[in-house]
Design goal:
By secondary structure, the protein is an alpha+beta fold. Among the domains are: 89 residues, conserved putative lor/sdh protein from methanococcus maripaludis s2 fold (Beta Barrel), CATH 2.40.420; 87 residues, Beta Barrel (Elongation Factor Tu (Ef-tu), domain 3); 62 residues, Helix hairpin bin (Helix Hairpins). The strands form four sheets. It has a six-stranded mixed sheet, with no helix packed on it. A six-stranded antiparallel beta barrel has the order 3-10-13-12-11-14. It starts with a helix and ends with a strand.
């Protein structure tokens, strides 16, 4: 029978070779990834708040007639400019003209009677009571004359401000009632951007504060100022109204346009900031970074919440503490628990 020792030696040699291969593979996996790091510190920033708003004219008026009647003239269509004092519309004045003539006749008639009776009163031929009666009659006729004169004048509607005709809600030939709004005129030499700001940001907004306003529809950014800050929150949204005033000398900005407002606080606040490239995102859009444990020489994943972008750095609002070491370079090669070597 042949000896089995050569076979045993061969098996032992193969086993040792396999162990060495595994050890080498393990050594390859444990090779430290060179990374660049940065210590997390708080830095002062001027906090910015971005909100959307709706543009309105600086002054908007809704106009109608003080008397009823039939429209016989309208001066402008929607979107056309109007001047202060310009005749905007008028009603058929025929009935009011006749009423004015009747009041004139009444005044003349009562005036003649008053003159005749005054002579008699001066001669003591008429009692004071009878003379007082005709005197009151004359005053009443004159008041009625003033009323009819006003009614006739009110058949013409004049623009109280310069601006543009935003809305025309009637046409020539229509019958209108007293006080019915027919036209909307807005002064757009200056415009107001109305927006809502969250309760948490209210303390950063002050009257007179500068604001940058992007009006996408005209492709320009304008500079305005905060002119009003609401004192009462909206019941539903718990937000406060903010009004930004903008100059509009060329009339490019029109009421109804949407604007993006950026407000920068004048009071610096300390925030954690990281280079933008240090923030990674997974398939669920979760933001995360890698934190280095110097004792273990390993990097561990840490989910974070981010805020605004400040000078190519991103504000970290949750997930990090000051003095922690964050990987800012080489993090794309890392997995949770990877061994690292610090290059800086």
């Amino acid at each position: 029978m042949k000896s089995s020792k050569p076979y045993i030696a061969l098996i032992t040699l193969l086993a040792l070779s396999g162990c060495q291969t595994k050890e080498k593979a393990t050594e390859v996996k444990e090779v430290a990834v060179p990374v660049i790091t940065e210590q997390v510190t708080k830095q002062p920033i001027n906090r910015t708040t971005s909100i959307s708003g709706n543009i309105e004219g600086s002054r908007t008026v809704r106009l109608g007639f003080m008397v009823a009647g039939k429209l016989n003239f309208i001066a402008a269509d929607e979107g056309q400019p109007v001047r202060k004092g310009q005749l905007l519309a008028s009603l058929d004045p025929t009935n009011y003209g006749i009423a004015k003539e009747l009041s004139d006749v009444q005044v003349a008639q009562v005036g003649d009677e008053y003159t005749r009776l005054k002579i008699m009163h001066d001669r003591n031929s008429l009692s004071d009571a009878d003379f007082a009666k005709v005197n009151y009659g004359l005053q009443q006729a004159k008041v009625q004359q003033k009323l009819q004169t006003k009614n006739l004048s009110d058949t013409k509607l004049y623009a109280p401000i310069s601006g543009v005709m935003l809305k025309k809600m009637a046409e020539v030939g229509e019958i209108t009632a007293v006080g019915t709004p027919l036209f909307v005129v807005s002064d757009i030499s200056k415009v107001s951007v109305n927006a809502y700001i969250p309760e948490s940001e209210l303390h950063t907004i002050k009257i007179g504060q500068s604001a940058r306003v992007l009006v996408s529809s005209v492709g320009q950014t304008f500079t305005g100022k905060v002119k009003e800050v609401g004192s009462v929150a909206d019941v539903t949204s718990r937000a406060f109204t903010v009004k930004i005033e903008l100059p509009n000398p060329n009339g490019l900005i029109r009421p109804g346009m949407i604007a993006e407002i950026t407000l920068t606080s004048n009071q610096p606040v300390d925030r954690l900031l990281l280079p933008a490239e240090a923030i990674l995102h997974d398939t669920d859009s979760q933001s995360y970074v890698y934190i280095v444990d110097k004792a273990q020489q390993k990097a561990f994943r840490r989910n974070v919440s981010v805020g605004q972008l400040v000078n190519n750095k991103i504000e970290v609002t949750a997930g990090l503490s000051p003095q922690e070491i964050v990987v800012t370079g080489g993090q794309q090669k890392l997995t949770d628990g990877s061994s690292v070597s610090l290059s800086n």
